[in-house]
Design brief:
Helix content: 10-25%
Shape: globular
Strand content: 25-35%
Oligomer: single chain
Order of helices and strands: EEHEEEEEEEHH
CATH class: Mainly Beta
Number of strands: 9
CATH topology: Jelly Rolls
CATH superfamily: Jelly Rolls
């Protein structure tokens, strides 16, 4: 279960840099200390259970690739189950952020990311919204205009991966009213 009395997630919006499309509308969200995993026998389980319960399936356990990549057909959530890492988000001209055990990062489709450095014990749980497809691209592997168009068509997730239907993602990623 997520911890209670959470501060709002940190939000970062990254511009398209011509190589990495990023997402022009939806910010990356960083939930600090979303889970208390210090005493967990298997620290990945709280992330897996919460993500699955909130419609973020196809979970995996691993680290974060050290090469820049992004997804044009899905959003992604990364739960830091063990260890710490410095991750570059937003492409080659993006921002490096430190994440540690208990943190959760929600990446909107198109957001470039790569691991810059990590502790030897890093364990990450990743997942994707059940209402999305999957792909993985590096800058230059897809026509940029095609990537931007695909990202615009990715559906919003039905729930926040940490807090469910009442989570901050639902407000912070709400479609603009026109």
């Amino acid at each position: 279960m997520p911890m209670t009395d959470q501060a709002p997630p940190q939000a970062c919006l990254f511009a398209d840099d011509g190589e990495t499309p990023n997402n022009p509308v939806l910010p990356l969200l960083v939930y600090r200390r979303a889970f208390d995993v210090a005493a967990a026998r298997d620290p990945a389980v709280p992330f897996e259970e919460a993500f699955a319960a909130h419609g973020w399936g196809r979970s995996w356990r691993n680290g974060i690739y050290d090469f820049l990549h992004f997804h044009t057909r899905t959003h992604e959530v990364l739960g830091i189950a063990r260890g710490r890492a410095r991750v570059q988000f937003g492409g080659a001209r993006g921002q490096e952020l430190d994440v540690e055990a208990g943190d959760v990062v929600v990446l909107p489709a198109g957001t470039g990311h790569r691991c810059v450095s990590a502790s030897a014990d890093l364990l990450v749980v990743g997942a994707y919204p059940d209402n999305s497809g999957f792909d993985q691209k590096r800058p230059g592997q897809i026509d940029h205009a095609s990537a931007v168009a695909a990202i615009a068509d990715v559906a919003l997730p039905h729930q926040d991966p940490v807090h469910g239907s009442d989570g901050p993602l639902k407000k912070m990623w709400s479609p603009p009213r026109g």
